[in-house]
Amino acid sequence: MSDAERFPVPADHPDREVLEWEAFGHAIRDLARTIVASAWQPDVVVAIARGGLVPAGALAYALETKAMGTLNVEFYRGVGETLPDPVVLPPALDPAELTGKRVLVVDDVADSGRTLLLVLDLVRQHGADVRSAVVYAKPTSIVEPTYRWRETDRWILFPWSSLPPVTGIASTDA
């Protein structure tokens, strides 16, 4: 059974790709199998925060890679709203620590590809053997990720970011 048959786009969101937790679990296992089949094993998994945190952690577990790092990059402000360029935010991972390592850079989506390109270039500048993995790639991306689970041209609703933020003062009721 194909991914599209197992995880169809809900009829109430024809312009959205909705990823549920169960499908995410299958996506990570599929990505891990693809990476293993390529006969390449990362020494370090680097998450592009925030969207890449959950996929990177799940992939690190699936690949039995214990070393992880995070690069915080801001680019998207909302649906279709971006900064002029992606910006690395503090605290920053020391890329010099990646010299000579096999590094898997992970994000949730390669949309424009500009964030992924920024991080890949930063890691490559320090002599790492770097590859990339994303849950989704879009045809508009300027970077072809090394590994991807699915391609779409829709806006993606991820299970970890589809609900609005929790705001206000937390209740002290027991």
Describe the structure.
It is built from four helices and eight strands; from the N terminus they run αβαβαβββαβββ. It has helices spanning 3-6, 21-37, 53-62, 114-124, and strands at 16-18, 44-49, 67-78, 81-89, 102-110, 129-137, 147-151, 155-157. The strands form two sheets. It has a six-stranded mixed beta sheet, with helices on both faces. The protein has a two-stranded parallel ribbon with strand order 1-8. The longest helix has 17 residues, at 21-37. It is globular, with a radius of gyration of 17 Å. This is Xanthine-guanine phosphoribosyltransferase. GO terms for molecular function: glycosyltransferase activity. Residues 17-161 form the Phosphoribosyltransferase domain. Keywords: Glycosyltransferase, Transferase.
**Helical stretch count?**
4
Rg calc: 17 Å
Q: How many domains, as an integer?
A: 1
Distance between the termini: 47 Å
Structural class: alpha/beta
Low-pLDDT windows of residues: none
What is the overall pLDDT average? 87
- Give the spatial strand order of the biggest sheet: 4-3-2-5-6-7
Q: Determine the CATH topology.
A: Rossmann fold
Major sheet description: 6 strands, mixed
Characterize the overall form: globular
Q: What's the level 1 CATH class?
A: Alpha Beta
The beta-strand count equals 8
**Architecture (CATH level 2) name:** 3-Layer(aba) Sandwich
Percent of sequence in beta strands: 25-35%
